[in-house]
Amino acid sequence: MDQMPKCPKCQSEFVYHDSINFVCPDCAYEWSGEETAQESDEKIWKDSNGNVLQDGDDVILIKDLKVKGSSIVLKKGSKAKNIRLVDGDHDVDCKIDGQPFSLKSEFLKKA
């Protein structure tokens, strides 16, 4: 049996197929299976404000972040130049003050 996709709007797992569309009973969102296939082909990274990020962009931290396994704290407003987008738990590879870090895009805004 084919695996049903999650709802693109609310990420609910309780989706059913209704003739030509998929329907989410939680948020009542309807979409065609063709849209799901097109969207899943390419990963899109977005910052905390919903702006699309690309390789080479400059970003700014929106909150203080403690570095795991270290006493370093990355301060709010620190700027990372020339980011690189990667797949994985942490979306962005960058350098801040000459040190390499892997950060999540939800803590960044496009400069």
Element-by-element helix/strand order: EEEHEEEEEEEE
**Helix amount:** under 10%
Which structural class do the helices and strands define? Answer: mainly beta
What is the arithmetic mean of pLDDT? 87
In one word, what is the shape? Answer: elongated
β-strand number = 11
Tally of helical runs: 1
Ends apart, CA distance between termini: 46 Å
Protein name: Zinc ribbon domain-containing protein YjdM
InterPro entries: YjdM, YjdM_C, YjdM_N
Domain Protein YjdM N-terminal: 3-32
Domain Protein YjdM C-terminal: 46-111
Describe the protein's architecture and organization.
With 111 residues, this protein is mainly beta. The protein is built from 1 helix and 11 strands. The strands form 4 sheets. It has a 3-stranded antiparallel sheet with strand order 1-2-3. A 3-stranded antiparallel sheet has the order 7-4-11, with no helix packed on it. The mean pLDDT is 87.
Q: Which SSEs are present, and which pair or pack?
A:
Blueprint: E1 16-18, E2 21-23, E3 30-32, H1 33-40, E4 59-61, E5 65-66, E6 73-74, E7 79-80, E8 84-85, E9 92-96, E10 99-103, E11 108-110
Antiparallel strand pairs: 1-2, 2-3, 4-7, 4-11, 5-6, 8-9, 9-10
